[in-house]
Amino acid sequence: MRQLDWPTGHLRGLAGADLGLGRVALGEGDLDVAATLLDAALASFRRLGDRLFLTSCYSGLAAVAAARGDLPGAARLLGAADEQSAPVSYRTRHADTERTVAHAPDAASLAAEREQGRLDARARRV
Questions:
Q1: Could you give all domains of the chain from N- to C-terminal order, each with its CATH number?
Q2: Would you say 82 and 66 are in contact if contact means Cβ atoms under 8 Å apart?
Q3: pTM higher than 0.85, yes or no?
Q4: What is the CA radius of gyration of the chain?
């Protein structure tokens, strides 16, 4: 387990490594490892209050959910990414995940899930 009392720079470096390695694992199709690393990065960036990288974490986790066939979960995570990216004017997405959610047979219900993800992220404030 990492020590959470390390200086902020160390936590930011670890979070960045987790995010980068999570994206590599996602690209290689290792969804369990990707989810673990992206969850760790999300927790660290949330602790740091870093909206820019929270957006990227949520986007990666949405891709994991979509790859697992959990389209409602993917939509909620994309909604959380939308909410985090708005104040920093930054968007990072997995285009395939966006297309999968937008063109799913139940796209209307997934739009509601995406909005719920936005609201959930807004309630957490980061």
A1: 8-124 (1.25.40.10)
A2: no
A3: no
A4: 14
